[in-house]
Each structure stands twice: as C-alpha cells, then as structure tokens.
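TEACHING EXERCISE
Course module: macromolecular assemblies
Task: Read the component lines below, then compare them to the predicted structure of the full complex.
Student: A.B.
Group: 4
Components provided:
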Amino acid sequence: MKQLEEYRKKELVVKLADRIAQRSSQPVTLMEVCGGHTLTLHKYGLLSLLPSNITLISGPGCPVCVSGQGFIHALLNIVSDPSVMLATYGDLLRIPSRSRSLETARASGADIRVVYSVMEALALAMEHPKKNVVFAGIGFETTAPLSAAVILQAKEKGLKNFFVYSAHKIMPPALSWICSNTDTISGFIAPGHVTAITGTTMYEELVSKYHVGVVVSGFEPLDMMLAVSMLTDQAETGHYCVENAYRRAVRREGNTRAKQIMAEVFETADANWRGLGVIPGSGLQIRPAYGMYDARRVFRIHEPALPEPEGCLCGRIITGRATPAQCRHFGKTCTPETPVGACMVSHEGACSIWYQFKTPSRL
Amino acid sequence: MCLAVPAKIILIDDTDAIVEIGGVTSPISLALMEEVQVGDYVLVHAGFAIEKVDPEEAEETLRLIREIIGSDLFYLTGE
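Instructor-supplied answer key:
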C-alpha cells in the first residue's frame, strides 16, 4: 500500500510530537498494551521525541510473556509422551521453566515442530496419522479465531489426531485488572490487531468504569504518535472516550465472521496470567462440543501454579509496575542468549526490546 | 505475536487465496473473511487474512494528521 510510506515519514512524526509537546501541560502516563507497539516505540526512537512529562509503560499484550510457568511445565509434560508431536510458535521454545525448556526437551529427542501458522499444525496431523499432534495455542483475540477456524477444519476432515492446548486469552479482563490495581494510568494505546477482530465497543465499559482514555492504534510510527496525541488531548480536556486512530483496519463492529467462529469453538474461562494471577473469565477454553480436539481434556493436562524465577520482574514489567532496567537480572544474568524470564525471550517482550535497542534506563 | 501485515489479494480459490506482500507471493486462508475480492488489501496474521485494509481510510487519516499539525507540512510531503 502506497500510503504506508507516509506513515513512516519522519517529518510528520516529528511535527506531531511537537504538537503533543505544545499541548501537554501535566504529567501523563499511558500504557501501550501490545508488545508490537513497544517494538515500534523503541525501534523508531519515538520516546525520545516526546516531552518528558509523557511516560509510556508497557502492558500485558505479549502472549508469550503472559503465559505462566505452569503452561511451559505442562507442555514439557505433554512432549514426554512419545506419541505426541508438539506444534508451536517459535517464541515458546526458549522460555525457561525450572532450568528446562522446550528447546532442551527437543534436543533430548522430544518431537517438537516450530510452525508459523496453526494451519501447518493441521497439515502435520494429516501427514503423520500415527502421531497425536498438539498445537500450543497462545495469543489474544487476534490469534484465537485462527485456532478456532482450524478446529472446525479438523472436524470437517474427520481428523482424530489433532488437538489444541488452548492458552488463548482475551484483553478486556486484563485491562480491567490493571485499572483496578493502579491509579497512575490515564490512557491506553489499545492493540490494533486485537481490535480489528473485536471492534472498538469492547473498551467502552473500561472508559466509563475507570475514567481512562482508550485510543486504538496501528503499528507504524505515525499511527502511534497520533494515538499519543489523541490520548494527550483526552487527558488535557478530561474528556475520556474510545477513539480509533487505526481506521484503515479497525471498524467499530470488528470482524463479525471471525468473532462468530471464535464463539462457536471457544467459551470464556478463568486463566492464569504471569504477573497478574488468575483473572476470572480472561481465558478461552474449547467448548465441550469440540472436546475431542481439546488437549487439556484428552491429555488430562494439569497446569501447576509455579513461582517465577527468583528476582525476575517480568510480572511487574508487563503490568507497568517496573521497567526492565529495574530488574537485577536485566542485561546481566538475563540476556536474549540466556533468558531468565519470558519478557527477554519474545521479540515483543519489553526486556528483549529494551536490550535490543539499548534503551536508556531513564527516559 | 499479533503482528499482521497488509497484503494485496491476487488470486482467490474458495477460502484459499494468494496474496502479494512486498513483491513476494504467499498462500493464505480467507476462512475468517467475508466478501473479499481480488485487488483488496487484507491484514495477514499467521497465514490468515483477519480484516480488510481500506486505502481510502488510510488516506483520510493522513489528511486528518496534516490538518492537526498545520498546513506547513503540505510542502514537506510534496502535496
């Protein structure tokens, strides 16, 4: 799309930042919910363009980062079954759990395949009829419809060796949790691709209940600067509302078909988030009607509540209560080569991003 | 994880499609989409189109931004 170049134009980004500086008269803290947004902010150096009274903190929108230790532990248990072939997105491989990881399990002979899409996991099940192929389903509303669509395809094809271990989560309960546990945030830069599916109305309750602003943003530098500009205006005027700065991809009603498919296969359930604990109704589990594809049920998976590695601040970092630089492991015992916590593993994790772009400890 | 990139649909076969992203073609699923046509732009996430991308709205947002920051930039952007 030819317009995308415009959304990366430095002149427009700088001018918009200047406007924000002119209009900003008070300290404002905004949370960029999505790890993809954290990446854009640091990759393009946007934080250095903003006035010092605007603080941006990272949120829980990195699926790998919010998947608790118990999830990795359960995956390690699953792959110890020689009948199982685990299909997973690559980011999960290196998350440590008690000095083990899926990567070390694979080196020890476990059958673990990295896939780019859940469709590839389905193809593996068709190619290997004697294997029980388990897909590790992580991700938010952006990704959950994909898993749902493939479960419907598995049913249509009559497959009996394809299973999804759903650790899918939904955003609104996590944002409510954050609003209930902190009073410093005046606005959220809402995740553009989650909202492309859900539509913008799901944030209205958050705004009315907690008196915060929500602006849905795309992932180009100009998108994000526009979102910060809108949230700054909301904070300055005290008129908080839901605004859409990503109109080219996000509609008020969202993607109706994707939502229908997601609702057909999944129902909400309590879910454990790293750093946030168990949040009622924040997870997506497979409905009983599709139980034969539910790895939790078929393999009787138990997810134990395991503590975080000692001293690891991932849980506080993804809730905006600490920065990576405040963690004693950061850049020392915890690096992308030797990660201690999940936020250093995922390329959308705040620690990985701070490390990669050498973000100063004080912005 | 929620990374999605805009791509142009160049071929549709039922719920499968071929898209072009930066000069490279790749197969995707249209299982989550309604009413898409060859030539439409879609956001592609992990092998699925998840929503249409509207070039007119992309233009409209740029117009809004230029309005917000003042007319001086019309020269900088060559318009």
